[in-house]
Amino acid sequence: MNITLEHISKRFQRHWIFKDVNYSFAGPQAYALLGPNGSGKSTLLRIIAGMQSQSLGKISYADGAIALQPGHIFSHISFSAPGMEIVEELTLREFLEFHFSFKRPLHGLSIDAIIQLSGLKGTADKPIADYSSGMKQRVKLAQAIFSDTPILLLDEPCTNLDQQGVDQYREWIETYGTNRLVIVASNDPREYFFCKEQIVIEDYK
Question: How far apart are CA 134 and CA 140, in angstroms?
């Protein structure tokens, strides 16, 4: 998979968050979008995901030599962010069954296997609303990382995780993050330790 940004710029009212981002992402490879809080890295990640529109510029997606229309990119992308909404009225099992009715899980992984990997087997049949912030973050990461998509986009993935959760994230990435195009928005080295390519948002002010 390839994603090409041409002159991508974002403005809120009169303030430019970033301007004229030209970059090509090519998978399988891992990239980090780096910058302090408020720098625009999360905004750029949402634009790449097609979840937010840019003020100027163009994004193109391609699967090898085949161009993909932006409206069809959803099935190719998994996304996780601390602020994303999940259906908290559902139990973990119900939520995963719902999520994976839209996207296939990675080959060889069942709902039960994903619950086991998440470390939340003991609470799988409790409403997600009763989970702690760290448990909810595990759910958000699990639904993204364990989806069978060639593109994985992660915004500050270790937010609200304790050290056990951070270690779990590292294991998931090392096991399930290869052979994919991965982009991580972060200012924490624990989150982008595996990213060989780094893009500093401050360079585009």
Answer: 10
Provide the residue range defining the domain that includes 128: 2-204
| End-to-end alpha carbon distance in the chain | 28
Contact between 103 and 78 (Cβ < 8 Å): yes
Count: domains in the chain: 1
Q: Which two tokens stand for residue 170?
A: 């590292």
Q: Where are the beta strands (DSSP E) in 13-122?
A: 15-26, 29-34, 56-63, 66-68, 77-80
pLDDT, mean of residues 32-36:
95
Q: DSSP E strands: which ranges in 1-140?
A: 2-12, 15-26, 29-34, 56-63, 66-68, 77-80
**Which residue, among 103, 101, 137, 108, has the nearest Cα to 120 in the 3D structure?**
137
- 142-177: pLDDT as tens digits: 999 999 999 999 999 999 999 999 999 999 999 999
Using DSSP's 3-state secondary structure scheme, residue 2 falls into strand
Question: Which pTM was predicted?
Answer: 0.94
What's the rounded Cα separation, in Å, for the pair 22 and 7?
Answer: 5
CATH code for position 194: 3.40.50.300
Tokens of 65: 């030599």
